[in-house]
Amino acid sequence: MSNAALAGLSDDLLFVTVLLYALSMLAFAGEQAARRSKQGTVAASDALLTRQAAAARTRVMAGGPALPPPPVAPVAPAVATTRPSRAGQAGLLLAVVGAGLHTGSLLTRGLAVDRVPWGNMYEFSSAVALSAVVIFLVMVFTGRVDRGLGAFVMLPAVLYLGLAGTVLYTAAGPLVPALDSYWIKIHVFAAILSSGAFLLSGVVALLYILRARHDATVAAGRAPRFPLSMGAALPAAPVLDRVSYAVIAFAFPIWTFAIIAGAIWAESAWGRYWGWDPKETWSFITWVLYAGYLHARATAGFKGTKAAWIGVAAAGALIIDYYVVNIFVVGFHSYA
Amino acid sequence: MSIDTSPVVDDATRLTTQPTPAAPAGPSQGRRQLLAPVRRTWRQLTSMRTALLLLFLLALASVPGSFLPQRNLNPVAVQDYLRANPTLGPVLDRLGAFDAFAAPWFAAVYLLLFISLVGCLGPRIRLHAKALRTPPPPVPRVLSRLPSTDRWESAAEPRAVLDEARAALKGWRLVERPGGLSAEKGYLRETGNLLFHVSLVGLLIGIAMGALLGFKGTVLVKEGDGFANTVLSYDDITPGRLFDAARLEPFSFQLKDFRATYADNGTALTFNADLTYKDDVDAAGRPYDLRVNHPLVTGGAKTYLLGHGYAPRVVVTDREGNELEQTVVCLPQGPEFISTCAIKVPDAAGEQLGFEGIFTPTTVQDPETGRVTSVHPRADAPALTVQAFRGDLRMDRGEPQSVYALDKTELVAVDGGTPRTLLPGQTWQLPGGGSLRFVETTEWATFQVTQDPGKLLALVAGTGMIVGLCLSLFVRRRRVWVRAVAVPGPAGGQAPPGRTVVEVAGLARQGAEAFAPEFTALAARLRSTAPPAPDLPAPDLPAPALSPREDST
Question: Does the beta-carbon distance from B216 to A273 stay under 8 Å?
Answer without folding.
Answer: no
